[in-house]
Specification:
alpha/beta; Nucleotidyltransferase, domain 5; 3 domains; 13 helices; about 40% helix
Length: about 425
């Protein structure tokens, strides 16, 4: 069998297979990276035989068999029924082990959602957890809910904990270093959750987590240049450039929401003035509505959308202004990154179908190629971020996680999400 040369990208031979990381490694990383390749071919093409994994990946059959035995022992995968063939031995098929699950949480300034997710991204259970000003109290509440999940799912194996946060995470300490809407800097969230649950904990920025979910669960096949933008109470972004996830120095790449577009504008939570976030976030839309209806009752963003659907002129004006601001910021982002695809996540997905023409027109205005990027709303922001938190834990065994943490150790392997 022809062996794929080291450090070259490979692609699955079966139609519609999606691989989040498929780069064969060299030197001391070869064994671990090949293990990741086998795991992800099983994930993308399940059910699949050992022979087909070897054929698709280019790895030697003996290498695949050795890795499969290790993955079976670790319970990442399971064997299913044999396939009938015209002759020879009947191969057993390999699939992900649905009994292996993850505890995940998406933390926002006002509430958190905790959940149990399996290897295929299915939710077994979810629960809302209040978020207060004291991080220790909030983390204890989240841990309590997660322990209750474990007690109700004793037939499952809990592999780890993934947490999506509205801020940037220091790759060397796993602590938040920039979270203007949460104000939990320097709190040892990862260490506290580990102490309370006894499981490995991984933290990730919410935009990066959402992009990882799209990559891991295979919804952006063939895309090598994309930007995922989350629009909720704040704005964050994650960048896929030439098939590689960009983290930047100290993991801080993607804070487009804190680029000032009006130096005389309102003050932002980051300390600056006139940031894109203060004009395009859901907080901005609610502020505009209060200014137009100073004597009206306070409303949530969902209620604001409902009012707009009922033809309330102030609500419609507030959302239109927000949509224009989103599009204007995306115009700058498109000029900088020139992505093939812009994915929109978070609260913006709640009204995107109604205001997409406004957003896209503002973004495409004056586009150098006359066309601009393609747009996709990834739907429920909570679900995307929770799946992303699970993908972060999954990536402990793949190139993204390893590369991110090796960067913190002054080493620089490349993270590739070839399609």
């Amino acid at each position: 069998m022809k062996r794929t040369p080291a450090n070259t990208k490979v692609a699955p031979s079966r139609a519609n297979a999606q691989l989040a990381y498929v780069e064969v490694g060299s030197s001391e990383l070869t064994r671990d990276i090949n293990r990741d390749i086998v795991l992800e071919y099983v994930r993308a093409m399940q059910p699949i035989s050992r022979v087909d994994v070897a054929r698709a990946s280019g790895l030697q059959p003996s290498t695949v068999s050795s890795i499969v035995e290790r993955l079976l022992e670790e319970r990442w995968i399971r064997e299913s029924s044999m396939v009938k063939t015209a002759r020879g031995r009947r191969p057993t098929l390999l699939s992900l082990n649905d009994d292996m699950v993850f505890l995940v949480a998406d933390i926002r300034p006002n509430q958190a959602i905790a959940a149990v997710v399996d290897l295929s991204g299915r939710f077994l259970e979810r629960q809302i957890v209040p978020v207060c000003a004291h991080p220790e109290t909030t983390i204890q509440s989240i841990a309590s809910v997660m322990r209750a999940f474990q007690a109700r799912h004793t037939d499952k194996t809990f592999q780890g904990v993934g947490v999506s946060v509205p801020g940037r995470v220091d790759l060397s300490t796993d602590e938040m270093v920039f979270a203007p809407n949460l104000q939990w800097q320097a709190f040892p969230m990862r260490a506290r959750l580990h102490a309370l649950l006894g499981l490995e904990v991984q933290l990730e920025n919410d935009a990066t987590a959402s992009l990882l979910a799209e990559l891991w669960f295979g919804r952006i096949d063939g895309v090598r240049n994309a930007v995922l933008v989350t629009v909720s109470e704040g704005i964050g972004a994650a960048i896929l450039a030439d098939g590689r996830l960009i983290a930047g120095r100290d993991g801080l790449a993607g804070e487009f929401g804190h680029i000032s577009i009006d130096p005389d504008g309102p003050e932002c939570g980051c300390g600056g003035k006139g940031c894109w976030e203060v004009f395009a976030s859901t907080t901005a839309a609610l502020r505009t509505y209060r200014e137009l209806q100073p004597s009206g009752a306070a409303v949530s963003f969902v209620q604001l959308i409902a009012l707009a659907m009922d033809e309330d002129p102030s609500a419609r004006a507030a959302l239109t202004q927000q949509a224009r601001a989103i599009g204007q910021g995306l115009h700058l982002l498109n000029a900088i990154m020139s992505p093939d695809l812009i994915l929109l996540a978070g609260d913006v997905s709640l009204f995107y179908d109604v205001y997409r023409d406004v957003i896209e027109a503002e973004c495409r205005a004056g586009a150098m190629d006359g066309v601009g990027p393609r747009f996709v709303s990834v739907g429920d922001g909570d679900m995307s971020r929770l799946r992303g938190a699970a993908a972060v834990v999954l990536q402990r065994h793949s190139g993204y996680y390893r590369a991110a943490h090796m960067r913190a150790d002054k080493r620089s392997p490349t993270t590739s999400f070839a399609r």
